[in-house]
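Researcher: I need the complex structure. Ligand is iron/sulfur cluster. Inputs:
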Amino acid sequence: MINLDTKIFPTWCPGCGDFGIWAALKGALQKLNLQTHEFVMVYDIGCSGNMASNIKAYGFHGLHGRAIPAATGIKLANHRQKVIVIGGDGGLLGEGMAHFVSACRANMDITVILHNNQVYGLTTGQSSPTSMKGTKGKATPLGVVEQPVEPCAFALLSGASFVARTFAGTIPESTEIFTSAITHSGFSLIEVLQPCVTFNKLNTYDWFRQRIKPLTQTPTDVYEAISKARWTDQDIFTGIFRNDETALPYHKTFEILKEKTLIQHSEKRDLTKYIHDWVE
Ligand code: SF4
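Model: Output:
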C-alpha cells in the first residue's frame, strides 16, 4: 500500500473539517493503490492548501485562486497522470472563478476537491463567495448582501461531467465519493461541507447534521441534478448529482495525444537540468 505519511501533523485548528477531508482523501488514494508517479496534487492557498505538507506525493502549491490552471497545465503535459486539486471556496470561487468555469466547460480531466467552509479561514474569517446572505463577519459587520454561489449547481450548469457533495464529518462516504471522482474520466467536482470551527459559528457540524440528506439515487438529467444540488432552508443533499462517462474529456479531443503525451512529444529536449537533486 502506498505510504502517504509525511510525518508532519497538520496545523489546522482542533476539530476543523479539513481533518476529515484529509483522512478521506488518503483512504481513497490507498484504495485506488495509485503509485506516486501516477498522480499529482495541486494545492490552492488557504487552510485547505496547507495539506501540501501532509501528503507524501508529488505536488504543486499554487497562487491564490490559480490551482486549476496549474492543474490543467500538468494534465495536458502528461494526461496519463491523475491530477487532484485541493482548494477552498474563497480561492476557487472568488479569485479563481473564471478558471473554475473554464475547466467545467472544457471537461478537463482533473478532480477538484472544494473545501466549502463559507469563510476565508486563513485570513481570519472574512465572508467568502459561499457565505450565506446576512452572515455577519469582520468584513461584513452588517451582514453579507450578495447571494451565495452554489458550487455544485454552478458546475452542473457549466458542463462538469461528475458533480458530487459530501460532508467532512462522514469520512467513509467521502472516501467512496473521492474514489469515484478520481476514477472518473473528465472534470470532477466534489464540494465538501467543511465546518470551520474557529470562524464560522453558524454552519457548524450540528447545523449540517440537521439538514443533510443522502441522495437515494443519481438524478437522471442535468436539470433534476441542479434542482437536487440547490440548498434549501431545510435540505442539503449529499451524494453524486451527475456522473456522465460519455462526455469526452478535453485531452481526448486531440489526435496528437492519442499515442503519446505532450511531454513525450518533447522528448528531444533535455529536461534533466530542471530536476533538482532532492527529487528521487
Ligand atoms: Fe480550519 Fe477554520 Fe481553523 Fe482554518 S481557521 S484551520 S478552516 S477551523
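Model: Summary of the prediction. The CA atoms of residues 8 and 54 lie 6 Å apart.
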